[in-house]
Design a protein that fits this description.
The chain is an alpha+beta fold. It has one domain: Alpha-Beta Complex (50s Ribosomal Protein L17, Chain: A). It has 4 helices and 3 strands, in the order H-E-H-H-H-E-E. It has a 3-stranded antiparallel beta sheet with strand order 1-3-2. The radius of gyration is 15 Å and the shape is globular.
Length: 116
């Protein structure tokens, strides 16, 4: 039984999963919109929303926490450009839009994740 299991494994070990979502978060911050599978987009949404909440505090400790989780370039962009946009917003910084088509190779549902 899968009671109290909060994370999806995505058929990867922990370090591989961490690297995958760190890379996806970096690309989402830099491009502000990416196309991926629906399950990965939903999981990435949880990660990004927490990072924006940290960045909204606008202090040195918040910047250092972001630098520990993201590459330098994307951490600075999140801290100085993206987080100030959502200063008055209490959550819901990203949206996941399901696409009607599926991936050709394995039939996975595709979605677009973007900032609101």
């Amino acid at each position: 039984m899968k009671h109290l299991v909060k994370t999806k494994k995505f058929h990867r070990k922990k370090d591989q999963r961490k690297a995958l979502f760190r890379n996806m978060a970096h690309h989402l911050i830099m491009k502000e919109k990416i196309k991926t599978t629906t399950e990965k987009a939903k999981y990435l949404k949880r990660i990004i929303e927490k990072m924006i909440t940290i960045a909204k505090k606008q202090n040195l400790a918040a910047l250092r926490r972001l630098l520990s989780k993201l590459p330098k370039k994307s951490a600075y962009k999140l801290f100085y450009e993206i987080a100030p946009r959502y200063k008055e917003r209490n959550g819901g910084y990203t949206r996941v839009i399901k696409l009607p088509l599926r991936r050709k190779s394995d039939g996975a549902e595709l979605s677009i994740i973007e900032f609101v």
